[in-house]
Design brief:
This protein is 36% helix and 10% strand. With 341 residues, it is an alpha+beta fold. The strands form 3 sheets. The chain has a 4-stranded mixed β-sheet with strand order 2-1-4-3, covered by helices on one side. The model has no long low-confidence stretch (mean pLDDT 86). Keywords: Apoptosis, Cytoplasm, Hydrolase, Nuclease, Nucleus.
Length: 341
């Protein structure tokens, strides 16, 4: 069918890096380009049209194959467009210090967007650039504290409490393991658990793991509060590169509660039963409770993982039998006094 007889194709057109779009119709690529340049007051020579989606240049051969109401970007000489990821790159370039103009531009793009994938990308990006990561106190970022008790006055304080609550829950599980030993060994089991509790109290229940203000080596996050998933128990890293900053906004704070401190050697299936068995079979040997302490409550055996990386299958890992009991101290040899000449 002749192009003259065909119904004009309609497009949504905008210039590079502009959030404003307008409709334009035409029966050829040249006609759409000419109308777009007139509307945007841009020179026709050197200008061209590209699909917003992937940056494909709109030419005469492809013109009638393009879907109706496709979104186009009008480029002048020297300008390039790589698809909608170019918009994301723009915002990432100001990611560290987002300003009001960037946030407003992201909101406008999200308001106009209809494609679900791009909506998701823009919504996530908008949530990121709108964060108040640097704020620490309730006065500086009231929305972050919504739903929390008034006693929490700082973000670090609440995150320390959150970590402490997890560690305390592990201690309760270990204490309940006393039921796995007979009455004659139960007192010794609880004595060892008491020693662990005293060490935890001295270490403030390792609450520094979630505190961005703690010293490096004592925290699992960056000084800004970014946590990275350490991957499932059977791999060295997270291939999905999961990350989160619970200090950024209320939603991230809530989502962080779904991340797990996963025991590589399983707590309930392996470590607690092994501790109970060690007490039961001690036969005069001294159980190395500090070895079990490290497996239960420290990063020696804990990995921070995104919920998708938390494998709930049996880990098939066991405690080291050579470390269950303290090594007896070698008897000191008596030194013979030297005879004086």
């Amino acid at each position: 069918m002749s192009a003259v007889l065909r119904k004009p194709k309609t497009f949504k057109l905008r210039s590079l890096h502009s959030e404003k779009k307008f409709g334009v119709a035409g029966r050829s690529c040249e006609e759409v380009l000419r109308k777009g340049c007139q509307r945007l007051q841009l020179p026709i020579p050197g200008s061209r049209l590209c699909l917003y989606e992937d940056g494909t240049e709109l030419t005469g051969d492809y013109f009638w194959s393009a879907p109706d109401n496709s979104e186009l970007v009008l480029l002048t000489a020297g300008q390039t467009w790589q698809g909608f990821v170019s918009d994301i790159s723009r915002f990432l370039s100001v990611f560290q210090e987002p300003h009001a103009g960037v946030i407003q531009a992201a909101r406008q793009l999200l308001w106009d967007e209809r494609a679900p994938l791009r909506q998701k990308l823009l919504a996530d990006l908008l949530g990121t650039v709108s964060e108040n990561i640097a704020a620490e106190t309730r006065a500086e970022d009231p929305p972050w504290f919504e739903g929390l008790e008034s006693r929490f006055r700082s973000k670090s304080g609440y995150l320390r409490y959150s970590c402490e609550s997890r560690i305390r829950s592990y201690l309760r599980e270990v204490t309940s393991g006393a039921s796995l030993v007979g009455a004659e060994a139960r007192e010794e089991y609880l004595r060892l658990v008491g020693s662990m509790q005293q060490k935890l109290q001295a270490a403030q229940y390792n609450s520094s793991y979630f505190d961005r203000g703690a010293k490096a080596g004592r925290r699992l996050c960056t000084p800004e509060g970014w946590f990275s998933c350490q991957g499932p128990f059977d791999v060295d890293d997270c291939t999905s590169r999961h990350s989160i900053n619970p200090y950024s906004n209320r939603e991230s704070r809530v989502l962080f509660s779904t991340w797990n401190l996963d025991h590589v050697i399983e707590k309930k299936r392996v470590v607690v039963p092994a501790l109970a068995a060690a007490v039961h079979d001690a036969e005069g040997r001294e159980v190395d409770w500090e070895y079990f302490y490290r497996l239960l409550f420290t990063l020696e055996n804990l990995k921070l993982v995104h919920i998708a990386c938390h494998k709930k299958t049996t880990h098939k890992l066991h405690c080291d039998p050579s470390r269950v009991y303290c090594t007896p101290a070698a008897p000191r040899r008596k030194r013979h006094a030297r005879q004086r000449l």
